Protein 1
Amino acid sequence: MTASISGKRVAFLATDGVEEVEYTQPRKAVEEAGGTAELISIKDGEIQAVNHMDKAGTYPVDKQAKDAAAADYDALVLPGGVANPDFLRADPDAVRFVREFFSAGKPVAAICHGPWTLVEAGVVDGRTLTSWPSLRTDLANAGATWVDEEVFVDDGLVTSRKPDDLPAFCDTLLQEIANSK
């Protein structure tokens, strides 16, 4: 049974190079559970998603990170893709936006390469999480403990490794949002 998150607003922080399925599946799960999903980006207009390295669909941006505040949302999702989190972690407004969720103790979910933005935000020290395996050293250097698991939750931080983990990632994300204060 899917958790109901009726009335909850969930921010999806992404830009060009986002892995399409890592954006679309969690967004669909949020919307089907009664939540409102909004795409926050570092640019206006629309973003270009990818399927691995090939161009996929484009998606309209609801708000730019420079104009977004965690106070307006109940949770944050950081989809992966190789380029997406690399662009995000270089943007001060995106990094600030991520940090605000941790300061407020709100649920955050990151999949695949998504935790790169968490490293830049300085929020993984002392935490346990998973990711795409190539991020293991980056996470360890930032003070995190890396585990190779389908989905891992550490005090409201939901992480998964790859698109194959999306069913567990989406279910766990919804549970964390439903159970958050």
Protein 2
Amino acid sequence: MTQLYVRTGIHFANREEALEHIGTEMLAKGVVKASYPQALKQREAVFPTGIALEHHAVAIPHCEAIHAISPAIYLIRPDNPVFFQRADDDDEIAVSLIIALIVENPDAQLKLLRQLFSGLQNSQRMTAMLNADSAELRKVFRETLIEPQPEAASTR
């Protein structure tokens, strides 16, 4: 089972500070190895994770599975957008949601990335996550991105 950690009400001066925070927090939670914080920063430098969506932008920082102890997601909604380099070009983009992935199985990582990217394409879901209060954010994220239910599942 993937652990879900959620944080709101936090300010980062830049992406380096955000990545440092993620590394420290995930190490403290015991879901990553000591090598994780540095590996996360190194991977972000080589393979940036900022993604422009229709109305918003997200970053999905992650690194190789060998640095993980157990699967987790650290969802952060900072007070102010944080600039991350875009995954698809050299520009930077103001990110309003950071979704750090800790995956111990490379195949599961690819599947989760696809699932997240698919769910994030829905601007209503994205808006719901950006507008949810801290207590609701975990529920909204889990229901819309991690365990999405087919929208027309029942025809009563």
